[in-house]
Amino acid sequence: MKLNFIFSVFLTCSAVISQAQRIDSENTAFQLLKEPVNPVESQNRNFSVTVSSPYNITKEDVVKEAKENFQKQVANYDQSIEDAKTEHAERLKDYEAEVKKLNEKYRTESEQYNKLKAVEKIAMNAGPPVLRLPSRPQLNIPQKPIYREPDLKNALIVDNKVLSSQINIDGFSRGGSYLDISINMERTNFQDNAGKTFANQPTKLVVKQNGTAKIDKALFSDFEEIASSPTNEIDLSAHEKSYLQKVISRINEILAENYGYSKINSTVKLETVKNKGEYDDLEKAYIYVTTNLKKMQAKPDYTPNKAAFENMNKGVDIWKETLKKVNYNDKKALYNGKIGTYLYMNLIRLNIALGNKTEAEKYLNEMQEHLVDLKLSFDQNYELKALEQKIYNN
Asked: Is residue 269 packed enough to be buried (19+ CB in 10 Å), middle (13-18) or exposed (0-12)?
C-alpha cells in the first residue's frame, strides 16, 4: 500500500530526566492518503454506472401498496378472529391440563405433609405445600384494521436512476467511460425462520477498466438475520430500504478500495534526546523526520512528496546507525539502553503510523531481544504492548 501524507501539527512535550539524558516527546497529528489497489492515471479518472434492478417505485406506488395491504387485512380479518379463537382454545386446553396436574401434585404433597409429626416438621424445617396456579389464558381478539397513510419519508421510493446516482468514487468524475460499472440486483427477499426475519438481495457487480474486467463479484446471495421478529410484525418497506442502502454502501466500499483515494487521520509520537553536543546527530535525525513529515501532502501524484520522503529517511537512517552503537549493559555509556529504547520506540511508532507493519514488526522483534537489559518503565511496557496489538491485530 502506498501512502502519502498531509499534516496539521500540534505539540505536547514531556520531559524525562535520568542521569544526563533528557528525552522529549512530540505528538504529530496528520492524515494519510491511501492509494487504491488499482491506481488510475489522473487523466483517466472517470466512470459510468449502469444499474439494472426491478425497482421503479414512485410515491403513487407506495400509496397504492399501502391501500392494497389494508384491503388484504380487511379481507383476512374474520379469519384472523377465528384463528385467535382456535389458538385460545388450544391454550385453554393446555391450561386446564396443567391446572389438573398441579392440583394432583398439591394433593399428594399435602397428604404426605399431614402425615408428618410436629417434631419431624421442625427437624425438616418443612412448611405446608402451596398451590400456585398459572394465569388463565385470555382471548385476544385482533383489532379491526385501520388504514393509515404511509410515511413517505421512510418509504422506499427508488428507481435505477436514483440507485446509479448513489454510486461514487472519490477523486473520479462521473460521465466518462474509462471505468464502466455494471450493477445487476434483485429486489430484497425476506424469509421467516424461527420467529426471526432474514433477508438477501443477490447482486452482481462488474467493473471494466478501459474495457478489461477488473472486478466481477456476486454479493448478498446468502440470507442474513435483519430482525428478531417475523415478517408480519415488522415494517418490510423500511427494512427493504435499509437493506438496499447496505448493498449500495458495500458496492461503494469495494470501489473505494480498488480505485478511490482516501485520507486517514493519524497521530505519531516521536522522541528525541536534548543534550547539546553529545547527541547532535540524533537531534538532526529528529529534525529530518518531523520537518519532512510536515512537508508531505495528502494529494495523489504530488511530486514534492518523493523528496520529502527521501529526506525523512535520512533521519531514519541515523536512528538505525545509532542503534548499532548502543551498549545495553553499561548505564553510563553515551549510547546506553535508554537511548536504545527511545530509538526502537520511534522506529516502531513511525512505521505503524506510515502503514509499514512488516518493518514495525522487525524493530519490535529486535527490541524484544534486548528487553532484559532495557529495564522499561510501567508506561513504556504498557505502550509497547499497545503497539504490538496494532501490528498483529489491526
From this structure: middle
What value does the mean pLDDT of the chain take?
88
Residues 284-315 as b or e (16 or more Cβ within 10 Å = b): ebbebbbebbbbbbbebeeeebeebbeebeeb
Confidence of residue 365 (pLDDT cuts 50, 70, 90): very high
**With 80 as the cut, is the pLDDT of residue 241 above it?**
yes
Backbone angles phi, psi at 273, to 5 degrees: -95, 135
C-alpha cell belonging to residue 7: 499534516
Query: Nearest Cα to 294, choosing from 6, 4, 2?
Result: 6
Question: Is the pTM here over 0.90, yes or no?
Answer: no
Band (157; pLDDT cuts 50, 70, 90):
confident
Say if residue 197 is exposed, middle or buried (CB neighbours under 10 Å; 0-12, 13-18, 19+): buried
Q: What are the backbone dihedrals phi and psi of residue 65, each rounded to the nearest 5 degrees, phi first?
A: -65, -40
Candidates 355, 157, 364; CA nearest to 264 is 355
The DSSP secondary-structure symbol of 261 reads: -
How far apart CA 141 and CA 322 sit, in angstroms, is 84
302 pLDDT higher than 60: yes
* The pLDDT of residue 16 is above 60: no
Range 210-216 contact pairs with CB under 8 angstroms and sequence separation of 24 or more:
210/44, 210/178, 211/180, 214/38, 214/258, 215/254, 215/258
pLDDT classification of 48: cutoffs 50, 70, 90: very high
Task: State the residue for C-alpha cell 513529515.
Answer: 293
Any bridge partners for residue 213, and if so which?
208
